[in-house]
Write a structure and sequence with these properties.
Helices cover 45% and strands 14% of the residues. The protein is α/β, with parallel strands linked by helices.
Length: 555
């Protein structure tokens, strides 16, 4: 069925859910764009919505339906459909079923609606999953293979399809899913083929057949190609977080960074993404998936130093610090003022003092050469940690210029810390990074107002020695919060500091210079390969995630 390219006679049933009941700005950007091509917008809210979210959703919708958070997306769509009635749905040229799980439109949906209106189809979607012969859901779906299907985050249904008894019976008799897997096997994965077998014609807006031999789920793992080559107007939220093991199962881990670069080329406001992701997602997952590790050159920079753009605060006493790090501090003397602080201070007091001295400077370097903890003999590891911190924070004048450029070009990065040591007795004592302090770290974080998930399965990133680069205003806010928890020890405060920055809307990145990056990468590669020798000998070679699973299940 072809429809008029200029029609606005569309109904959008928009499914919304948020664990905190908050609708972030990307939701309203999406609804505003839809309004130019839709006569009616019904927003269905699964679960709780706070008062301000209710007000804004009602402002951007013709009607808002609130329901319990049961049945996932399908349950919400069904309630929206039953609320309006099939007779009403049949008066629209097109009915859109879409949800909150993607960012967009990267430009506008109008171009997509205008183009697809001229396609003779019964239903369509934005993207599709390609067929997999080795069905990962054997016994859960009625096929020997995983069928090619439209992704259910966006379905567009033409009037003839909506009026058909086949679709009505499907929606009436379909059981609401009780799990995420149910929503795939009982709805998304079978919808397209079920109706194709009944003779209905479907199509995807973003054609990806040219990529199917490279990856069966290009919307997830080749999003950059879909955005650049095919004008894909959306990007899934899950490109910005998730279990990194799954990414390594399907890719080299490059897909999300490539997708983000392609997205920025469209002009989409990336703050809409980070406002949502930073509020809701595990910081370790964000860092891993988006590769928030920066390795600036120590030899060259394009940065033009400006008076007042940064300062350095150094703890430990000038004479003692200069003996340890004088050659590195030389790189700052002509461009960045250095404040030396002496005396016995707690870590919370050091943060407060650094924030105070950095007032008026947008960025601050904090160094604490004598603050590196020791886990007993051999003491020589402390010297290595200090070397790594200096190379990671103040390697050279060009390096410092490049750090300041990172702050300028990546405005949501608020904190940059050296990599965690993975050698000597630090490897043993830090363990998973929490050094046995995970539960305490979570408790303190919650007391400080951090609400996003923190998992002991994901290693933290923080400055073991206490040094870092930061946005001064955010450091001030963090220091004020920590000042009321002076009873917490230094290591615990170091662990939670990046969590406070994220709660303030800022990302944390690991940072080291191009010179030390070779040392760090070599150490990681050596450690991994030596571990692999033992694992392969005991369990045999396999996918990385399979090896981890075998280790976890060992006797």
């Amino acid at each position: 069925m072809i429809i008029d390219r200029t029609t606005k006679n569309r109904l959008v049933i928009f499914l919304f859910f948020d664990k905190d009941g908050i609708a972030d700005r990307y939701i309203f950007r999406m609804l505003e764009d839809l309004r130019q091509d839709a006569r009616t917008i019904l927003t269905v809210v699964n679960g709780y919505a706070e008062a301000e979210t209710r007000r804004k959703l009602e402002e951007h919708s013709d009607e808002v339906l609130y329901r319990p958070n049961v049945g996932f997306d399908l349950g919400g769509y069904r309630d929206g459909i039953f609320h309006l009635g099939f007779k009403t749905l049949g008066t629209y040229d097109e009915v859109i079923l879409m949800n909150y799980t993607f960012f967009g439109p990267l430009k506008t949906f109008h171009t997509m609606f205008e183009e697809m209106a001229g396609h003779d189809v019964d239903f369509w979607g934005i993207t599709k999953h390609h067929r997999i012969d080795d069905n990962p859901f054997k016994g859960r779906i009625p096929y020997d293979y995983f069928p090619e299907h439209l992704n259910s985050h966006f379905f567009a249904l033409r009037k003839n399809f909506v009026r058909s008894w086949s679709w009505r019976e499907f929606m009436i008799n379909r059981k609401n899913p009780e799990s995420y897997t149910d929503s795939i096997t009982d709805y998304e994965a079978i919808f397209t083929k079920y109706f194709e077998d009944l003779g209905f014609v479907w199509e995807e807006y973003v054609h990806s057949d040219y990529l199917k031999e490279m990856n069966r789920a290009p919307f997830a793992y080749l999003a950059a190609d879909l955005i650049r080559d095919s004008g894909c107007p959306i990007i899934k939220r899950r490109n910005f977080f998730g279990d990194y093991t799954v990414f390594l199962q399907n890719t080299a881990g490059e897909n999300s960074v490539r997708a983000y670069e392609a997205l920025k080329e469209t002009g989409y406001d990336t703050d809409l993404i980070w406002d949502n992701i930073l509020r809701l997602q595990d910081p370790a997952e964000i860092r891993q998936v988006m590769h928030f590790a920066r390795y600036p050159s120590v030899k060259a920079t394009k940065h033009i130093f400006r008076a007042g753009e940064a300062c350095a605060v150094v703890f430990g006493g000038k004479e003692r610090v200069l003996a340890l790090a004088g050659s590195y501090l030389e790189s700052l003397k002509d461009d960045i003022p250095v404040f030396f602080e002496e005396g016995a201070l707690t870590y919370a007091e050091k943060l407060s003092k650094a924030a105070e001295l950095a007032s008026g400077y947008p960025h601050v370097l904090v160094l604490d050469p004598l603050g590196i903890p020791s886990f007993g003999d051999p003491k020589s590891s402390r010297a290595s940690v200090l070397y790594g911190e200096l190379e990671s924070l103040i390697a050279s004048r060009p390096f410092v210029g490049n750090v300041l450029d990172i702050f300028e070009n990546e405005n949501r990065i608020g904190l940059m810390v050296p990599p965690i040591p993975v050698y000597g007795n630090y490897f043993e004592n830090l363990g998973d990074g929490y050094a046995g302090r995970f539960e305490e770290a979570v408790k303190l974080s919650r007391e400080l107002g951090v609400s996003f998930p923190i998992s002991d399965k994901n290693p933290p990133v923080y400055s073991l020695g206490g040094g870092f680069w930061a946005k001064s205003e955010v450091l001030k806010a963090a220091a004020e919060k920590l000042s009321g928890h002076g009873e917490a020890d230094e290591l615990l405060m170091k662990i939670v500091l990046p969590y406070i920055f994220q709660a303030e809307g800022c990302l944390t990145a690991t940072l080291t210079g191009s010179r030390y990056a070779g040392t760090y990468a070599t150490n990681l590669d050596y450690a991994m390969r030596e571990n692999n020798k033992v694992v392969f000998e005991r369990f045999g070679p396999d996918y990385f995630w399979s090896e981890i699973d075998k280790i976890n299940k060992r006797d």
